[in-house]
Amino acid sequence: MPTSFATCRARRYASLLPLLLLSLTTACGQTTKPATPPAVVVDSATGKADMPWLRQLLDSSATLRRQQVGVSLADANTGAPLFGYNEAKYFTPASTMKLLTLYAGLTLLPDSLPSLRYFSRGDTLFFQGTGDPTFLHGDVPSRRAYAFLASRPEKIVAYCDIACVPAYGPSWAWDDFNYYFQPERTAFPVFGNTVRFYAAAPLATHRSGLAAVAPVVQRVRVLPRAFAPLTGPAGEGFRLSPDQDDEMHVFRAPLENRFTYVPGSKRWVDEVPYRTSRTLLLRLLGDTLRRAIVGTAWRPHPSRDSIRTLRGLRADSLYRRMLRVSDNFLAEQLLLMTSTQVGYRDSLSGQRVIRYIVKNQLKTLPDRPDWVDGSGLSRLNLLTPRTLTAVLCRLHQQLPEPRLLSLLAAGGGPGTLRRRYFEPGPRR
User: Fold this and answer.
1) Any idea what DSSP says for residue 146?
2) For residue 227, what are the CA distances in angstroms to 197, 342, 413?
3) Mean pLDDT computed over 388-397
4) What is the rounded distance in angstroms from the CA atom of residue 201 to the CA atom of residue 205?
5) Domain boundaries, given as residue ranges, for the chain
């Protein structure tokens, strides 16, 4: 896959460019002596800026010479280009697409996430999902919707379907279904649409007169507990297929919620997506809320039923988690949530949001983005380095700098860059 300095493969480097962009302008502003040669050279005839030293560095790199590299640097305050290297060529951006999803969220969503929509009629509460991923999520949990549904006085609580996108996005890798980073997209996720497995230290058996033999039993705690009966250890005949990752501990059958774990010699934690369905959702909601949940159609009466939206987690908490660890699931669900603010509210559609944002908010970008999902999992996403830089400048202009930097991963700080690009001295 081609990579670029500005649009590199996403999970580790999604936030590198904004930090370079912002720190560059800060460093230039604090320099007391002109660089020799000048760091930035401006052509007097065209007014175009360039950095010959950086261009020479890129051209002479034995490592980068074998790669597809694109670089775009701009003044963070004005957006004026400072340097470009293949900046107008399209690259596969991977998770740097999350910066466009962040822009959509900041543009369309309020300060608190829309958790669910509901109305009450007689002894029944009707509710439907908005795509909010935080319901009993293991990393960004919000109990607002849980407490709301558990404490309602109505005798009947009815979940109502809403049209939603397919479980997987266009051109996602279908055989990544077993990996934590590709849960299914749904209107009302529960537990992040994944199962977590916590394996304790294994137990050893002893034989009379002999030393302890290898561990043969390992207890595994399963959350949510509804999946515990569907989980078991690998038998003697269990074999990995050639394309399966032998560093994983838990394996799910492609089309069903049956999980097999391979006992190990140490403690371990694993996370595997489960296959979603309406029947399973109603069961999980009923088990966790400890009250019966029925499924029905969403049919509010236009004049008699007042539809309301329950507000949940602060949006910045979701943005921060999504960007710092490059969480694909949160990004996809965020794009679905923003669709509740665009067009009709009878469906959740990321494409509806993408069309709206590109047409109305990002129409002046240097190059039109090929934007197809919220996370960057799709190989169909394409961006040029200068377009990504323009989005970063928009974010810098839209948000106070301290708030923007608090959302992004930084070298030596929490997130995917914790062990990279940090200053000498104690780590933060």
Assistant:
1) H
2) 10, 36, 35
3) 96
4) 13
5) 1-93+382-428
